[in-house]
Amino acid sequence: MRQVVIVGGGASGMMAAIMAAREGAFVTILEQKESVGKKILMTGNGRCNMTNTALPLSAGYPHEKQNFLERCFLQFDAHDTIRFFEELGMMTKKRGTLVYPITDYASTVREMLLMELKKEKVKIKCAEKVVAIEKKKSSWIIKTKGWQYEADSVILASGSKAAAQTGSDGSGYELARSLGLKVKKPLPALVPLKCRETMCQAFAGIRTYVRLRLAIDGKEVQKEEGELQWTEYGISGIVVFQVSANAVRALEQKKKTEVWIDLCPFVAKEEILQFLKKTMDFDEKKTAEEVLLGIFPKKMVLGLLKERKWNKSSPAKEYSQEEWSLFFENCKNKKLTVTGTKSFENAQICCGGVELFEVSAPTLESRRHKGLYLAGELLDIDGICGGYNLQWAWTSGYLCGIHAAKGK
Ligand SMILES: Cc1cc2nc3c(=O)[nH]c(=O)nc-3n(C[C@H](O)[C@H](O)[C@H](O)COP(=O)(O)OP(=O)(O)OC[C@H]3O[C@@H](n4cnc5c(N)ncnc54)[C@H](O)[C@@H]3O)c2cc1C
């Protein structure tokens, strides 16, 4: 019976363990926290957006990684994920193409995995931090603080540096480096962005539906639409997370990184101006503040007027059509200069990690070391929001588990 040791009991590690055990291996998970699957509980705001059925699946990841990913998804894709969990007894539901457990509780996903790990007699050792991995002639020695384990195959599934409170403290990168593997500098992604403009403080606390464009060195590279949250330091929300990976890579290369925001994406500027004219005609005494209150939230109205140095109590009619036109031009094209991101603690994932050329697709076995496999976020794969990061954890866990158990 082949001995498989898995370093890390997150989404990818648990999936790998189940698959390796199903293939007949004796499997041990070494997990440094007091329990496995902690990060799963935080996913999707506690609901776990576990995958995405949009086609092609690889479109949810950076362009240059799509070929690699397609080879992996051919073996295990979003539909396989849904089937896998349904076979464990969990019903799923969809919001558009986003898939969730029917309970809307991320804990259900974790419970299903725990049940299956038990059924497959996987040994789970918690509070066991792996500190070193050594290659012997035809086996591996995995060292924790107080013990050492021997295995025919090792699966490194120790996650990234994002949300370290769940256990992914970046130690997996060190283990990979100690084995000679190249690691691309990890950067926080799916993370709020810090911006220079004081407008953010004026708007802090407001949530608005916006259209957002990311420009790098003056060139538009990504467009998104959705709810944005204004904060003291900058901007947050899923619409921001979606552009954050591109933003963080640009910032790392010291490129000019800007976000352009349309605060009223549902209507054209001309339409707003006509509407405003009607409001003013209906009640000539209305102030600048009063005519805007039906278009933007109050805090935003006050911030916008202050920014343009307009008197909120002046009659709206005192400002010319041209001035109003400029006012709304600015609302539809608000520029924010991105100066940085929030920390790894506030990030959902990392971009960067063990370079993809270090592993063969689709086995995910190390090209340098036979019997070493890499799964999950530890590898240099980052998806957008929408279930893509967990899908990568399921797919890579599946592949590592199957191949580690077979030893090929
Ligand atoms: C707040 C939040 C919300 C998210 N929401 C979603 C979502 O809805 N959909 C989605 O697709 N993705 C989501 N993600 C991302 C997703 O959770 C991760 O991409 C995924 O869990 C990564 O799985 P993993 O197995 O690679 O790593 P992890 O789940 O981080 O697991 C790694 C495990 O390895 C252990 N470990 C690390 N080093 C060692 C060591 N030296 N020795 C022993 N054990 C070690 C850690 O303790 C941890 O348990 C979210 C992430 C966060 C933080």
The assigned structural class equals alpha+beta
Strand order of the largest sheet: 12-15-14-13-16-17
Low-confidence stretches: none
The CATH topology of the largest domain comes to FAD/NAD(P)-binding domain
Query: What's the gyration radius in Å?
Result: 25 Å
Count of discrete domains: 2
| Shape annotation | elongated
State the CATH class of the largest domain. Answer: Alpha Beta
Bound molecules: flavin-adenine dinucleotide
How many beta strands in the DSSP annotation? 19
CATH H-level name of the largest domain... which superfamily? FAD/NAD(P)-binding domain
Mean pLDDT score, rounded? 97
What is the helix content? 25-40%
Largest sheet: 6 strands, antiparallel, barrel
User: Beta fraction of the residues?
Assistant: 15-25%
**Tally of separate helices:** 13
Distance between the termini: 15 Å
In the CATH hierarchy, the architecture of the largest domain is: 3-Layer(bba) Sandwich
What can you tell me about this protein's structure?
The chain is of the alpha+beta class. The protein folds into two domains: 242 residues, FAD/NAD(P)-binding domain, CATH 3.50.50.60; 150 residues, no CATH class. The chain has a six-stranded antiparallel barrel. It starts with a strand and ends with a helix. The chain binds flavin-adenine dinucleotide. The site of flavin-adenine dinucleotide has 39 residues, from helix 1, helix 2, helix 6 and helix 13.
Brief characterization of the structure:
The chain is α+β, with helices and mostly antiparallel strands.
